[in-house]
Prior knowledge:
Elements: H1 16-35, H2 49-62, H3 69-80, H4 83-105, H5 107-118, H6 124-139, H7 142-160, H8 164-181, H9 186-195, H10 199-227, H11 240-254, H12 259-276, H13 282-294, H14 297-316, H15 318-329, H16 332-351, H17 354-372, H18 376-393, H19 398-407, H20 411-415, H21 419-433, H22 439-444
Helix pairs in contact: 1-2, 2-14, 3-14, 4-9, 4-12, 4-13, 4-14, 5-6, 5-11, 6-7, 6-8, 6-10, 6-11, 7-8, 7-19, 8-10, 8-18, 8-19, 9-17, 9-18, 10-18, 10-21, 11-12, 14-17, 15-17, 16-17, 16-18, 17-18, 18-21
Amino acid sequence: MDNKQEDYAPHGIALLPIVVFLVLYLGFGIYFTYVKPVEGQMGFYVMSTVVAFGFALIVAFLQNRSLKFDEKIHICAQGIGDDNITIMMFIFLMAGAFSGIAKEAGAVESTANLLLNIIPGRFAIPGMFLVACLISMSMGTSVGTITVLVPIAVSVAKTGDFSLPLCVGTVVGGAMFGDNLSFISDTTIAATKTQGVQMKDKFRANLKIALPAAAVTLVILVINAINGGTNELGHYDYNFWLALPYFAVFIMALFGLNVFAVLGAGMGMFFINGILTGHLTFAEAFTSMGTGTTGMFETMIVTILVSAISALMEVHGGFAAILLFIRNHFHGRKGGMLGIGILTAFMDIATANNTVAIVVAAPIAKTVSEEYGIKPEKTASLLDTCSCVAQGIIPYGAQVLIAASLSGISSVSIMKYLYYPYLLFVCVMLSIFLDGESKAKRQMD
């Protein structure tokens, strides 16, 4: 959408749809988690985000009676039909198909096992962190990485007599690192396309924040490993040809190739290698791609709903109200970046979904970045990084909950071992407060 908040008078009441969403989603989540838990289901997933945003959209339509219903439909259509939103939808579909065929071929397990066989036993935990980083960057999903690697982490902890919460927390941290930087992650897609920047530019901006946090995390884990004595691990079975496509995709993405070309080449390699190695049949390959795209439908529907709600809130003056608040409380370029970071983190804490948080915060963040002279790639980096910080540490987020469920331990026991998300928070704050880019340099760019 074009950001024209200056054309609309600020009206805080226009933000009511978001308040309705938060009350419904958080209210049901807290109730079904702490008051009346539902057996076999995570409390924060009883109320679907699609349903909650559906009610929020109804509220947005009921506001501003000066506009006719048909006019509001047109506003929604403009928001949904934005070029970046359309591209984002197509990438979601391809990323889903890519993940589906890779999972069906057993490529993730082969890649993880290949890397674990290379790592010395005593350094298994720092090794798992590296494996989680690489797998998540290749897969583009932290939840998928955790689902695959946590059972391996449980086996490593048992075989090598390591701390189970430490092993699991290490995997979660590595998964968040890869998800934050991956070219095919839905968070990267949402952050870059809503800000209109190239993925490689956002990657470079992100790497300056994420890499120091990962490096310090790795140093901490290596020191712990050195002080922990010698541990031996067993052999893990793998197929090199199934692992190869992930490495190829990773390299192509780093060279900045078009994301559609990268995903298409990856699917082609998984298709050929899977059939040649006997891990896939012709029918299974296409069925798995269909299953993968189906898994993206909820994310796509949420994106459509949020785009429609955002368009209405903008016209009603809601974004102008937030911009006015930021102007009054956050001053200068650093203040603008801090405002974007806080807004994104708050939305993630409220929604427990980093992609949704980015989609909701993105239009406001774009306006703030233009107002305060913040580069679009920096804004995209802040959106992705701050959402990953919050998502990586909240005990009711999908990542920590799934990791706890698969390992049979409580989410609270994992919290103190989430070194990477905590260090990422420190690094993003340092990147804001130590920002030294001059106004003259920004104007030259």
